[in-house]
């Protein structure tokens, strides 16, 4: 029997899914607390023991694959030339590789900025800057600053190809682990982030897994393949595009609400949906991921309150029939941020979780989608679009604990819908909500590396419309 053991070593839980690939069945699901801070195999053994108790002989699985976001995930710093151009392109490449971008730096690095980078303790640096044949000075300066630093992490150089060799020499002479790849922005208004994403993934496999104490996980799996967010993005792309023998669902969005962050993935071109609208700004990647570190259900609950404001939560709670004072909401949110494993027990706490989840979705999608501006000229009005127009999108898939465990997940996902009160934001207007009820998106992304056809059929079987 052809089977797959697929494991997600998360920041809190190690989640295991076991599939029968011939029947396309999810045979068993288990989880245990992740124990990467002591010995990652303790948590893995607990999760696998539960599989054994369910009669699953996981050791005979055809595929044994894993992804991980444990130990802080893949933490990166991106460096570019102009904030809106190469620095933004570098950030998008890092996010697309499943990284957590700690900060983006632009222009020539100062001593103070270099000290800040060291204090951030990234796992990897993405060094960009200059289009091909364009500005050379800044990336060379920044390579020298990095070379003279005590930073001992891999550096992926993805800038102006005219000086790529010089950048490599500068860093290599300083005994830095440098990998040169194609420019993330070879020409103005042209993105080329796939080579950088692939190089980042290679570095993750070769260096980061060991650095984070995850190498012992490979006793149980044939390969620890990628950061978890990259697996989710791969699953979303598979579901949207399909395979040679299985049709996909078409353009879609995935919203993943977690305790610390809210991720939004869109698989869509995002071209203007209406005539007479002109695109402006940096081109958008078809497979786009954004991650919001200040929008989360627990670790980031306090930051979320600062972003959305107590008034919005108060009004949303009132609509659900719960009247709380501002101070009561603040006190409850503070407790949630401190007790990150708290599961709501009362009706009012359940309602608060719902509105926090809804607000996280609303603001994360708001930052992900494009916007349109109206410019008035002597010849009439003109419409300019920045970012993706996702108004025609037909499918929004929800995942993350607060969504998949919620009795009415639509109440949370409605935060992703176009808002008539803010019509400049190009959010989906009339999407159908789908739910990753079995929490299998990362498993689907892993399986897509070995058997994309089976992965897609499983995704279609278990990820369903509301």
From TrEMBL:
<dbReference type="InterPro" id="IPR006230">
    <property type="entry name" value="MutL"/>
</dbReference>
<dbReference type="Pfam" id="PF13941">
    <property type="entry name" value="MutL"/>
</dbReference>
<protein>
    <submittedName>
        <fullName>MutL protein</fullName>
    </submittedName>
</protein>
